[in-house]
Amino acid sequence: MDPMVEGASWLDEELAGSTFADARLGQRLRRLLEQLGGAMGASLPLACQDWAATKAAYRFFDNERVSEAQILAGHFAATASRVAAIEGPILILHDTTEFVYHRVRPEPVGVIGQYPCRNTSYDRRQLYTVCGLLMHSSLGVTPDGLPLGLCAIKFWTRANLKGSSTLKRHINPTRVPIEQKESLRWLDNMRQASALVADPARCIHVGDREGDIYELFVAAHELGTHFLVRSCVDRLTDDGARTLMAAMETVQGQGEHRIDVRDDKGRSSQARLTIKYHRLTVRPPLAKQRRYPALALTVICADEQGAPENRQPIHWRLITDLPVTCVDEAIAKIGWYALRWKIELFHKILKSGCRAEEAKLRSAERLVNLLALFCILAWRVFWLTMLNRTVPQASPRLVFTPPEIRLLDRLIKNKTVSPAPTLAHYLTKIARLGGYLARAKDPPPGNMVLWRGLSRLTDIELGATLGTGLMGN
Predict the structure, then answer these.
(1) Hey, where are the domains in the chain?
(2) Beta strands in 224-267 (DSSP E)
(3) Where are the alpha helices (DSSP H) in 182-254?
(4) pLDDT tier at 2, thresholds 50, 70, 90
(5) Which CATH architecture has domain 392-472?
(6) CA 8 – CA 2 distance, rounded (Å)
(7) What is the pTM of this model?
């Protein structure tokens, strides 16, 4: 895997495919990535350091010629090159998250929902309007869990809120065309991600129960790509006489699999799963049978035996268009779905590391541009964390420039003599700058210590450049 040219800045790789018509906007984006990456989680004024740079950042996010698509264009191109550099299947993890902002007037940003709350003055229930944005992201990862980058992203907010319970009393939701639903975002991201990869057949789109959408299954078939989602709807199968779950009840267990899980108190234990799978003809919803064809899909069930303490038992129902001919293939698909948690970690870095919900920008357009920039920084931290776990023996020059390597060698002395230090060796040094103790039995460093270490390294680089000239030698 060769994510970047040795010795080059990672920004050169991520911004090479930028599509700004004005080169000055591309230069400003690069400068903002350097500033915010060096002060991850800090406010814009703190990251920019002076009024002129802060004002330039505000003007960039407010520029009508700047959009989230242009900010992420270079990153998407870099993701495509990383995907092309490796072989085998690519998992596209899909998920939606919310960014909540506290504003006096929600109109400039928009709303994401209304929730009941108790007003202590009147002692009656009222609706509390939550102001914010929603983001549906699609992250490409390898089967080993290495994030290659974002493949698609969609931001939106809600101007008008319609209660789903009220709507269901007047109309059957399955009769509403997908084009009139927010669920269309799943199809849009699937199309965008599949177009990014030269061979869509390599992509397996992984989603939780929210992704159990029949239109998604049909779209995957038309695009020549694949999907793996957790089943939520008990659909009709075969001739329509029985449902999907009823059909799987008649299938005997075909194997067992053991996995390590943690309970609510963090204690590790083993869960024994009974595995069964079956190929079925799944029919579309009754209201859409004239529009969509029936599809041959595989259902995989993983059920935990016994009742564990301090956690819910595992009962997974996965549905995919991929063929499964043996228990090992079914277990591999279960392992792919388990990687869906990676996109939750990506969102955690956005909110906890970049502190995206603490931004003070006043309009949705400005916030979306800032979030797009944060997505690049969050991917970078997540990529470094997982790179340390998947290819620890790689060359450090794939990540760090020669001056950074020399500086890390000066800052943190090696405990043992190594003829050829590896990437893991220098990532551990970065983590130690962020508070990682690097004891013999400690797990590999996580996202938090890495983003703190990277921020400290940026400050140290500046001091070294100004004080000793080390970075110029």
Answers:
(1) 392-472
(2) 226-230, 236-237, 242-243, 255-262
(3) 184-196, 214-223, 244-249
(4) very low
(5) Orthogonal Bundle (1.10)
(6) 12
(7) 0.90
